[in-house]
# Entry
Amino acid sequence: MTQARPALREPVQPGVPAKTLDPGPAGTPPRPERLLAPTLPPGVSGKARLKAFMARFQSDDRVLIVISADPDAIAAAVAVKRLLWRRVGQIVVASTNSVKRPDNLQLLAALGLKLENLEGLDTTLFTRLVMVDSQPGHSPLTERLHFDVVIDHHPLSALADGAAPPAYVDIRPEIGATATIMAGYLQAAKIKPGQKLATALFYAVKTDTQNFVRQGRLEDMEAFRWAYPHISHQTLSEIEMAPIARSSFKTVVAGLDCAVFHRGLAFAFLERADHADTLVIVADLLMKIKGVSRSVAAARCEPGKLVVIFRAGGRRQDVGALAARAFGEYGSAGGHKNMARAEVPMENLDAKLRNNPLALQRFIRQRLSGTGEPN
Ligand SMILES: [Mn+2]
# Structure
């Protein structure tokens, strides 16, 4: 049996060191990992989950909710905020990544959610740490923190050596979105979602399941239907039609302009991109071109890393596995079947590649085609 790779969430947190993904140099046996374990059995009722979750908090708690900001994570964080409203002393939401993608910015604005940057935040000021839509091992910023609660839908990942297991863990990889899981808690608490929260949850399920093409399950559809009567169509369309920042526009145009096409694969390489989120826009737009079933957008982004974004249509591809095979030995790489990314610190690459964009582009294409993936 092959060693299961800890699948990365998409988007991957910036700067995840190779060690979180790489089981070790070839030939060395991977050390036994302690996986996070759900604290309740699978079939337990929503009420029981809610009770176990709420039991973690007291009225004077200062709660820090940690996310890697994307629509699902943002919606899940707001759902946790709603559940804990008037039940704890303070709630702060912090992200491990900076937000640049237009829909995420629009969503934050629509929710009026102030997102702190986890880096530089003194986590000891908080009495409870909660993580949603991610797991502590996904980011070097969080792997050493002690979380009280983890709620997620990514595959179970390993706990860092010496890290204490969270007291409450609800991880259900079979669910399409963490927003779906959170809808279950809100329903158990008999909370009717306000317009903003409903819109955020609705959009989260929609994007994380890619309109139910990917991994959409009955639970996701039920959450979708539950949220629907309460959403604001105006806000939803503002999020979906969010404008691209003018500073990213040039990168997007250049990314589309340089794309090359080969048997269903659209490949765009830029020497530099302003932000990884801009490459996501490029990869998504390339998928809209007729005949394209897979897209890859790659560029060097600050601070000093190569970012490769993967998108695929349909159910029969697995770009998460492709990303891991192609770049896992150089940095963090992985994701879902239809969405994945690799982030490789430039210092992990040969000096020749660091200073020669053409060589870097060739290297990426070789890694993509040389890993057994039919083109
Ligand atoms: Mn998610």
User: Anything to note?
Assistant: Residues 37-239 form a domain with the inorganic pyrophosphatase (n-terminal core) fold (CATH 3.90.1640.10). The CA atoms of residues 22 and 135 lie 17 Å apart. Residues 72, 133, 153, 177-178, 208 surround manganese (II) ion (CB under 6 Å).
